[in-house]
Amino acid sequence: MKFAVFGAGGVGGYLGARLADAGHEVHLVARGDHLAALESDGLRLESVDGDASVDLPATDDPTEIGPCDYVLFCVKAHDTRAAARDLESLLGEGTAVVSFQNGVDNEGWLGDEIGEDHVVGGVAYIFSTIGDPGVVEHTGGPARFVYGELDGERTDRIERLDDALSACEGIDAVLADDVRVELWRKFAFICAQAGMTAASRLPVGEIRDTDASWAMYRRIVAEVCAVGTAEGIDLPEDTVDEWLAFARDLDPEMYSSLHYDLTHDKRLELDALHGSVVRHAADVGVEAPMNEAIHAILRPWADRNDR
C-alpha cells in the first residue's frame, strides 16, 4: 500500500521506517535540516527494538506525492490546521488520514479542513525523537500504536491498516473498539506528565518524591478523566490508578516533550493539552483547577515561544 508520513519526526519516522521495511511504498513529508538529511542520506532508525536504514522519497511539497491509501499525520498539535490545508493532493476517495498526535481535538480540527470521512483516530505510545537530522532515536516505550474509525466501525480500510501495521517488526499494533476512549486515556496521562515536568522544570522522580507535587499529578489525571466522562467517554474506572502505577515505574530522570520544547524555546502544545482541558471542562461544567493552574503558569511561556 501507499503511505505518506506527514511529519517524519520521532513518531512518523519510526512508523515510516517500519512500514518501508515491511515492503510498503512510503513517502516522507519533512522540512529543514531533517529533510535535507533524508534526501541525501535516507532515514536511519536507531531503536531498542532493532535498527533500520531506509532510503525513502522525502519532500516538503505534498503535491509531489499524489493520492495515497493512508496518510499518517504526525505533526505537532499547534500545526494541525495549517498542515491539514496541505493534505488535499494526498487524498483519494477513500484515503484515511490517521492522526498520531497529542490531545483530543486534532481529529475534529482535521475534519473541519478535509472532511470527517477521511479522519481516523490514533494513539502512539513510544519514546522517540529526532536525534540528529535524518536519524530517529527510539529509546523506549512499548512502540504501541492504537487506532480506529471515530465511529467504531470496522471498515475495510481500518482492517487493511491493522493488517499492515500488525505485520511490521517493532510495532505493537492495536485496532481499538473505541478509539475515542484511547485518545482520552492517553490525554489524561500526558497532561499530568507534561504539565508537572514543564511547570516544575524537574523530572518525574523528584515530583514523585514530593508529596504535594505527586498529589497534584494525580489530581490532573483525575480531572481529565472527569471531563472526559462528562463528555460521554466511557473511560475505565481504574484509569487514574493505572496511570499512577505506570508513572511510579518511569525512569526518575524522565521529563516530557512539553518540557523539552519549553526549555529549547520551541512552540508549546499547551493549547492542545491543558488549554484544551480548560475549554472542555467549561463546556461540561466540570471543575479542573489543577489543569487551570498548569495552563496559567505556562501560558506566558507559550506566548513568548510563539513570538
Structure description:
- Helices cover 46% and strands 22% of the residues.
- By secondary structure, it is an alpha/beta fold.
- It folds into two domains: 176 residues, Rossmann fold (3-Layer(aba) Sandwich), CATH 3.40.50; 126 residues, N-(1-d-carboxylethyl)-l-norvaline Dehydrogenase, domain 2 (Orthogonal Bundle), CATH 1.10.1040.10.
- Strands 1, 2, 3, 4, 5, 6, 7, 8, 9 and 10 form a ten-stranded mixed beta sheet that branches.
- The longest helix is centred in the middle third of the chain and has 22 residues.
- Pathway: Cofactor biosynthesis; coenzyme A biosynthesis.
- It catalyses: (R)-pantoate + NADP(+) = 2-dehydropantoate + NADPH + H(+); (R)-pantoate + NAD(+) = 2-dehydropantoate + NADH + H(+).
Write the element-wise H/E pattern from the N-terminal end onward.
Answer: EHEHEEEEHEHEEHEHHHHHHH
CATH topology of the largest domain: Rossmann fold
* Helical coverage, percent range: 40-55%
- In total, the number of strands is 10
- Regions with little confidence, pLDDT below 50 for 5+ residues: none
Write the CATH homologous superfamily of the largest domain.
NAD(P)-binding Rossmann-like Domain
Q: Tell me the overall shape.
A: globular
Whole-number count of domains: 2
> What is the correct CATH architecture of the largest domain?
3-Layer(aba) Sandwich
Query: What's the CATH class label of the largest domain?
Result: Alpha Beta
